[in-house]
């Protein structure tokens, strides 16, 4: 079991506003490959940045749709892991916690987290590629891509590369980051902007910044503490 420094334990107990920021690494122990993991099998020949883009969808909507359908099935087939569960437990225990996630898998909600700020959207929702209208939940057993009333194709309601993040979610996330006295960045490569700016913003506004990741990232040098370990193990030790 990871040893948590006493200083972090006491900061956690006295935190006025804890912000938790998660990336794909938090879902790795559930069995969902991170974006950086090489695409496997059928998808090995594609670069995720190409598939997760409006250009990719415009060029070959069926392939992009099939990739998300495959990823969504994997999300539904797995369970939240101890990292998700520990985060939901901290939300119950502490006076003020803001959860900001880059993940689209919906596992934080399934672990009991109330209202994560989903900066990159949610794979279980659809929206219209043409008029951007909400397209509701992903329909069961659909083969061909469903269409909106306007005639446009529906697409996963996730944020693709080159697309703007949801304004309100990003605004609330930035405000929370500026107000945080303790900021945990968990399982993210800190490469994708503007989300990756949030831990730096928190640090500039006086937060104590902790990174939890088995690997170093561009954030590591700025962090007050780097816990090099798997999110599930470290977070379970943090709430023990
Ligand atoms: C924007 C949803 C501009 C989709 C995702 C050229 C043109 C346009 C924009 C750009 C450009 N060049 C750069 C940009 C900006 C671009 C960007 O940052 N690119 C990067 C690659 C340089 N950003 C954008 O395009 C954003 N939009 O800038 O709009 C704009 C402005 C005005 C007007 C119009 C437009 C949109 C970015 C959002 C993209 N969508 N996801 C989908 O999921 O399909 S991002 C996607 O990649 C994931 O959400 C994830 O957050 C991100 C990174 O993927 P991963 O690396 O897998 O995940 P993560 O970073 O979380 O890393 C995994 C980590 O886990 C690793 O560090 C690993 O060590 C660790 N780990 C592994 N196991 C464990 C673990 N940690 C803990 N425990 C473990 N067990
Ligand atoms: Zn439409």
TrEMBL record:
Active site residues according to the UniProt entry: 120
GO molecular function, one term: NAD+ binding
Signal peptide: none
Reaction catalysis annotation: N(6)-succinyl-L-lysyl-[protein] + NAD(+) + H2O = 2''-O-succinyl-ADP-D-ribose + nicotinamide + L-lysyl-[protein]; N(6)-acetyl-L-lysyl-[protein] + NAD(+) + H2O = 2''-O-acetyl-ADP-D-ribose + nicotinamide + L-lysyl-[protein]
Signal is among the record's keywords: no
Cofactor: Zn(2+)
Keyword annotations from UniProtKB, A to Z: Cytoplasm, Metal-binding, NAD, Transferase, Zinc
UniProt remark on cofactor binding: Binds 1 zinc ion per subunit.
EC number of this enzyme: 2.3.1.286
Source organism superkingdom: Bacteria
Residues annotated as domain Deacetylase sirtuin-type: 1-240
Class of enzymatic activity (EC top level): transferase
Binding site for Zn(2+): 128, 131, 148, 150
Residues holding substrate: 68, 71
Pfam families per the UniProt record, alphabetical: SIR2
NCBIfam families: PRK00481.1-3 (NF001753)
UniProt record similarity statement: Belongs to the sirtuin family. Class III subfamily.
Notes concerning its domains: 2 residues (Tyr-68 and Arg-71) present in a large hydrophobic pocket are probably involved in substrate specificity. They are important for desuccinylation activity, but dispensable for deacetylation activity.
Role: NAD-dependent lysine deacetylase and desuccinylase that specifically removes acetyl and succinyl groups on target proteins. Modulates the activities of several proteins which are inactive in their acylated form.
Protein name per its UniProtKB record: NAD-dependent protein deacylase
Organism: Metapseudomonas lalkuanensis
